[in-house]
Amino acid sequence: MMSPGNKLGGRYRLDERIATGGMGDVWRATDEVLGRQVAAKVLLPSLLNEPGFVERFRGEARVVATLTHPNIVRVYDYGENPMPGGGQVAYLIMEFIEGEALTARLQQKGRLTVEEALPILAQAAEALDAAHQHGIIHRDVKPGNLLLAPGDKVMLTDFGIARSALTGGLTQAGSVLGTAAYISPEQATGQNITGQADVYSLGIVAYQCLAGRRPYDSDNPVELAMRHVNDTPAPLPPDVSEPARQFVDRALSKDLSARFATGQAMADAARAALSGTTVPGGMPAAGGGYAPGVASGSAVPPPGRGLDDRTSVGMPFDPATPAPQQKRNRMMLFVAIAVLLVVVAAAGVYALVSGNQGADANLADGEETTSQSAEESADTGMSIDVATYLNQNPQQVKAELEELGYETVTIDGTGMFVSDVTPNEPAGFETPITVHASMTKVNPDDPGTGPGDDQSDGPGSSDPSDDSSCLGVLCIPE
């Protein structure tokens, strides 16, 4: 375990742990060669044994290192380092930002005025546009990943589940990545996506800023994701100006042809709305119908082509084969099943359920939360992948299992670390589940996921993934 005073790469001295997440720790550190303060994101040693984790972590550095923009947190270095006492850690050295996450601002103020929100949203949209021009889709835009430096300069962070269109990334077409509370309809239905998915997610952030709550909430991650596909947001408060309303409506359009085509277009519209100018162009309400496979030219995965295992998230599908409209109801059933499988099978890899103790039941929450993973079983329930819960906080694991739907979850023991979860064979949601707690961690060779957080989001519902303590770093999705 890393401690204050330890060095990474012979030059980065760890000074203070500022965040602990499901995949690792974030430290305030000092670059002793250049004499500057940096942020170090250190992957949990146990995860180095997990297939693909190091590649994703290393890929994150490569992806973000291609970006140079005043509103994007910079990557300085990546490395792998021996641990005191043996073992290896992988780390990422980032620009350290003094300030707070937008989450903290919303917690403090409840909601923002149009004059406060639109400049923040414009900067974030321009940062996304810069990423999109480099072929990079963020996929996890939310308040916790928008840092506010002095003067409310926005810094976009956490490209941990970003997919570079230039390299193909480590995710496959048809994968569902993103936080359920902010996920776009095309992400929720597992389609190939473009930068317009980020535009939609930022539109959800815009709605939250102006309304003081998110447009959709549910304790059920599948229901929450599908609400983005099927539901219409409630109107914004009456004191929100008409240009600002139209701005949000257009960002949240389920019709891709009506949504802002680029981040820059969204930024321009935000500034126009701030000046009282109506967003140009006629457009449908944000709840306009969404026909998967029509607007984007992509199709929902056909039946029988869903998940692989928990490290591959999803199987590719042929985007050229549209889903017949007359089979929409049946298609939605498959979509719901696919999303549920992603939620429980891919959370430990791409953090599709982060924290799992808040009402938003995330599909892919950012950094400071706990991961979970399970495999589909018979209709009676699911089998619990014990390895993903080892060494976590027992109360956190209990909350996660209850979030999945298990009706009776008890903790056996008073320790700080999970040593086992029983039963781990396929079990119905009514089956009593026992989380065994120990005072010491289990064998580090067992792939654990580490402790999570108890951070919360702003008014409306909790969002453990949006941790305001994660400043100036790329928050690792657990």
UniProtKB/TrEMBL annotation:
GO biological process, one term: negative regulation of fatty acid biosynthetic process
EC annotation from Swiss-Prot or TrEMBL: 2.7.11.1
An MF annotation (GO) of this entry: protein serine/threonine kinase activity
Chain intervals for the UniProt region annotation (Disordered): 359-379, 437-478
Entry annotated with the keyword Transport: no
Protein keywords: ATP-binding, Kinase, Membrane, Nucleotide-binding, Serine/threonine-protein kinase, Transferase, Transmembrane, Transmembrane helix
Compositional bias ranges of the Low complexity kind: 457-469
Catalytic activity: L-threonyl-[protein] + ATP = O-phospho-L-threonyl-[protein] + ADP + H(+); L-seryl-[protein] + ATP = O-phospho-L-seryl-[protein] + ADP + H(+)
Membrane-spanning ranges: 331-353
Stored SMART domains: S_TKc
Pfam family, one: Pkinase
Residue ranges constituting the Protein kinase domain according to the UniProt record: 12-274
Protein name, UniProt field: non-specific serine/threonine protein kinase
Taxonomy of the source species: Bacteria, Bacillati, Actinomycetota, Actinomycetes, Glycomycetales
